[in-house]
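Quick one: co-fold with NAP.
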Amino acid sequence: MGHRKHLGTWVTVGNVIPPLPHDAADLAELYRHPVADGRTYVRANMISSLDGAATAAGRSGGLGGDGDRRLFQALRTQADVVLVGAATVRAEGYGTPGHPALAIVTRGTVDRTERLYPDGGAEPIVYSGAGSSVDLRDVLADLYDRGLRRVLAEGGPGVLGALLRDGLVDELCLTTAPMVVGGAGKRIVSGPDLPVDRWRRALVCGDSDGYLYTRWLR
Ligand SMILES: NC(=O)c1ccc[n+]([C@@H]2O[C@H](COP(=O)([O-])OP(=O)(O)OC[C@H]3O[C@@H](n4cnc5c(N)ncnc54)[C@H](OP(=O)(O)O)[C@@H]3O)[C@@H](O)[C@H]2O)c1
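Sure, here it is.
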């Protein structure tokens, strides 16, 4: 680790950001999914490019790297249920083989022909508004009643925007990919303006591929 004189003050350069742990137990400890009294605890996990895009070539997977995939899996092992929007399921192909449970929100229907849960995992819980929006508070209350209390919201931007609008997100795990992608990709949150809200930074890690892993609390 080196030091460099910069504008009259000594700053540390080099490996100043703690590495994302490689050891699965250490990673699990660092990212333990909290529980809340009498309600679900909702953790969102999203990835963004340096220029704020939630996708590269239409999919979040285009932004991912090894560390991000490790973290993605580690967060799933900590959760009781993954909550996701039907558009993400259609774009990415989706499943949670074995664990955790999978919950999908849709205003219509979902079916296997749309690349939904193609890997033989458990049947998802589908919350359908039959043509209109479902109240995400009701969704979370139902998950809670089913004993699924640690909720991992994996997006996409539409669902995350709706959860945030209703004040239902406790935590955001945000990976920043060392990529600039331009284009018209969505940001990680879409929908109407939200009240400006300052979050608390809880964790910053990095890896040798240049990814940044941050954890933010409401
Ligand atoms: N960067 C990341 O971390 C990340 C994470 C996830 C996804 N993505 C990307 O984001 C894109 C998809 O995002 P998106 O914003 O278009 O879609 P999305 O948030 O995944 O899903 C939106 C859909 O969810 C359903 N929905 C949302 N709120 C609802 C409610 N209150 N009641 C009932 N249904 C509701 C609707 O499904 P119906 O259309 O069926 O009615 C709606 O069209 C994909 O390109 C995906 O790759 C990125």
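If it helps, The longest strand covers residues 41-48.
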